[in-house]
Amino acid sequence: MYYLSNMTNEQTLVMTSGHPQGLYPSTPKDPRVVITNGMMVPNYSTKEMYEKLYATGSTIYGQMTAGSYCYIGSQGIVHGTTLTLLNAARKYLGK
After folding, report:
1. Are 10 and 32 in contact (CB under 8 A)?
2. Is 7 exposed, middle or buried, given 0-12, 13-18 or 19+ CB atoms closer than 10 A?
3. Residue 66 parent element (H or E)
4. Are 57 and 72 in contact (CB under 8 A)?
5. Contact at 8 Å (CB) between 35 and 60?
6. Domain residues of the chain, as ranges?
7. What tens digit of pLDDT does each residue of 2-55 get?
8. φ, ψ (nearest 5 deg) of residue 87
9. 60 contacts 67 by C-beta, under 8 angstroms
């Protein structure tokens, strides 16, 4: 939230595996946020390198659920469920 609340129209926030990497110069036509997950290339990595990157939070095991940006962090499932229920209530109860 710190980066999002302080960035300008001439900056792009880069996120890697759920961690902000920083704000980089850009133009108003460029994306506001660039998000990547995992970043391991299997043919050029080792188990030891993966374990080191995993321990620092720089990569994740690439299953479909775990690879989804909304599930990174302990609040992911609770947040997603809350938004789903909130939007269902808005749609069907007119709230």
Report:
1. no
2. middle
3. helix 64-67
4. no
5. no
6. 2-93
7. 888 889 999 999 887 667 888 999 998 998 888 776 566 666 678 888 788 778
8. -70, -30
9. yes
